[in-house]
């Protein structure tokens, strides 16, 4: 199954506003319903958090190009240069479920908008298979990216996928 895919193609900081842009492509089974976005941009000790929902009043489509703005204020401290972004998108998934899409990536913060980068991903499949899940377990995914010790513009990533037992909570007396 091909999941929905997204990535960030531009982060711009100008006049106390951060703009983060990207594209969301639908995978099989993703309804054209709601998508909840949480995007976190980190540069050194500075962190900005953006939360958005699609569709909304001004954006009728769930999938396609997205551009979110966040007011940083006059003393935000973000500058042109390298940063790291992590994002999670929660999508309605048919039949009757939810899907999460999460990623982390290095970015370069710019000072002015540039034309969007064409989004034609060629993902590399990892060896994690699909699996069955009972109501007694949850599935957890962790994806981390950090600058490599060698520097030189390279990054190290790690991924962990696991199932965890769900604590049993009695529902009612007895």
Descriptors for this entry?
single chain, 7-stranded mixed sheet, 174 residues, mainly beta, Immunoglobulin-like, globular, disordered C terminus, 9 strands, two-stranded antiparallel ribbon
Classify the secondary structure makeup into a structural class: mainly beta
Name of the level-1 CATH class of the domain at 5-112: Mainly Beta
The spatial strand order of the largest sheet comes to 4-3-6-7-1-2-5
Q: Roughly what is the average pLDDT, rounded to an integer?
A: 75
Query: Which blocks of ≥5 consecutive residues have pLDDT under 50?
Result: 169-174
Mind explaining what this structure looks like?
The chain has strands spanning 5-14, 17-25, 30-43, 46-54, 64-71, 81-93, 97-110, 137-147, 155-165. With 174 residues, it is mainly beta. It has a domain at 5-112: Immunoglobulin-like.
Question: What is the strand and helix layout of this fold?
Answer:
Elements: E1 5-14, E2 17-25, E3 30-43, E4 46-54, E5 64-71, E6 81-93, E7 97-110, E8 137-147, E9 155-165
Parallel strand pairs: 1-7
Antiparallel strand pairs: 1-2, 2-5, 3-4, 3-6, 6-7, 8-9
